[in-house]
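Let's practice the habit of predicting before peeking. Look at the sequence and jot down your guess about where helices and strands might fall. Then scroll down.
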Amino acid sequence: MPILPIDTGRYGTAEMRRVFEEETRVQKLLDVEAALAWAHAEVGDIPRKDAEKIVAMASLKYVKLDRVKAIEKEIKHDLASLVRALSEVCGSSGAYVHLGATSYDIVDTANALQLKDAIDIIEKKLVTLKNILQKQAARYKETVMMGRTHGQHALPITLGFKFAVWGHEISRHMQRLDECKKRVVVGKMSGAVGTQAGLGEHAEQIQALVMKRLGIHAAEISTQIVQRDRYAELVCVLAMIASSLENFATEIRELQRPEIGELFESFEAEKQVGSSTMPHKQNPEICERVCGLARIARSLVTPALEDMVTWHERDLTQSSAERFILPESCILVDYLLALMNDIVANLRVDEKRMLQNMELTQGRAMSEAVMMALTRKGVDRQEAHELLRKLTIQSAVEKQPFKKALMQDRLVSGKLNEKEIDEALNPKNYLGTAVKQAEEFAKEP
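Done guessing? Here is the structure:
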């Protein structure tokens, strides 16, 4: 029976899970063995008919997973078991299977093939998320809401501006992933300690042919393994993506609180249940799921970094950890992106509540706008700041509108008439370039 929630199908998309299924993994290993035999034939190391036989039989159609596992149970070596199972179905041509290679020539090259597919899937979902954010930025570019710092009302922004901020963060992740891909998606045919001795005089040509056939690049140099800084970089980038998604989800969760009530993740009113005992509950449970699983994605960074450390040219400390790290990182981040795409595309926005919330501080959140208006009338900036600091406190303590406190102050009323004060207190007049920035993001290619 499956145990982990990825295995049960609770988490992860079917598309990404297929990349890391056991059958896919074994087929990738067979693809590398087939490419190696073909390359040997190309340089004249083995008869072409034998290479063709190996290529034809390097398939799960002939190499049965049960047989590979049965052999491994006996000899206690996973890759050697695959080699034996493939050799068995190749008859006399099986003598040339795995010629000159070491296990991790096959394993690391198969890793590259899987990671190439996985990164492609993640890149597509990042593009989708950016596109969704661009549409939302355009739609809500002029939707005024309160910007908050330290959880307190700060200055007005627009919802479109907030989406643009998120979108640029996603754009940077797209750049990071694209940049690290060329370092991550690499294979090798370098033999037992990286010297290529077992591959003979055509070693470099064999490696180049194998990688060309598989559609990836060869590592510039390797020992018995591809160095794990490559995988660590990918896992770190994926953890950063997960952290950004948690950041977005946390913001939505905060704004969904009844005390704020400005943004809400979608809720299927016909059937969805928020609580087993409280019928009224409409929880931001998808956002909470994003936050929880992002923690798991980040937790994989530590073992990925520790896997960079190896004894001499190879030890086995990376192997067991990577069986978790690589699939889990890719599956979780792909799943988080799928969730966030749906969340952002279907957000419910209460624009009326946004405006109501801006009135909670009775105009005090516009104190900077008033300060800047005073400075334009010749008032010293520091003097204006201190005066307005006192007037905001007075307004809060006396629970009176900030405008009243301003109108009653001699300096303020002497410099600004009522119309000018009203203009300074209007949030729509103090958005700076927020609308423009949202527009520019929305138009990005």
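How did you do? The chain has three domains: 12-96, 107-192+214-356, 361-432.
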